[in-house]
From TrEMBL:
The keyword Translocase does not apply. It comes from the Eukaryota. This is Uncharacterized protein. GO terms for molecular function: magnesium ion binding; terpene synthase activity. It comes from Coptis chinensis. Its cofactor is Mg(2+).
């Protein structure tokens, strides 16, 4: 909260100045106490009613996970249904989506030159970061693995798996990793996440 500065006045003596400063400090302390009481109530309300935000990007990533029974069916149809219900007309494309569409010979509402340029920029970025032999660059490549698909080393990506089975606590990165590696912990994390979202909606 912004604390307004009191109007300045002429201080006739050192004693008046000290008193004024003490009064100013007391007012600041009172304001701080009042401000602190408000957030406590809000935090208490947040814990009473947990709300999980919905990410279109993560939904799209998880929606691409195929069913164990059939590669033609989604493992998480609720994510696919959510996308269909919430799609917008001004369609945008990502590198991974464009590459998948290209491999499947799908017609996209973009010129071939636009798609090729986008994929070329992605490849250049991958080459640039790959030359930097550092822990940070490896983490970056692992985190963005869902858009690198064929370019990245998926065994290297698995080194960043967390105890909860996720990749960086990112549903989309975890989904992409599962699609490539069929890792059971990745699938377990995604199932638990979807269950949490379902419970939050009830």
């Amino acid at each position: 909260m912004f604390l307004s500065r009191p109007k300045t006045r002429m201080i006739s003596s050192r004693h008046d100045g000290d008193a004024f400063r003490r009064l100013h400090v007391v007012r600041i302390a009172e304001n701080a106490i009042n401000c602190a009481q408000g957030p406590k109530e809000k935090i208490r309300e947040m814990f009473n009613k947990i709300e999980l935000s919905v990410s279109s990007y993560d939904n799209a990533g998880v929606a691409m996970v195929p069913s164990p029974d059939s590669s033609q069916q989604p493992c998480f149809p609720e994510c696919l249904n959510w996308l269909l219900e919430n799609q917008v007309h001004d369609v945008t494309a990502s590198c991974s989506a464009s590459e998948y569409a290209k491999d499947l010979y799908l017609n996209l509402p973009f010129s071939p030159k636009f798609v090729e340029t986008m994929l070329h920029k992605r490849d250049l970025e991958f080459e640039r970061v790959s030359k930097i032999n550092s822990k940070g660059s490896k983490a970056y490549l692992a985190y963005t693995s869902e858009r690198l698909t064929k370019l990245c080393d998926w065994k290297e990506v698995m080194k960043w798996q967390r105890k909860n089975g996720s990749m960086f606590n990112s549903p989309s990165t975890t989904a992409a990793t599962f699609i490539q590696n069929q890792d059971a912990k990745c699938l377990e994390y995604l199932c638990l996440l979807l269950k949490m979202f379902a419970n939050a909606g009830n």
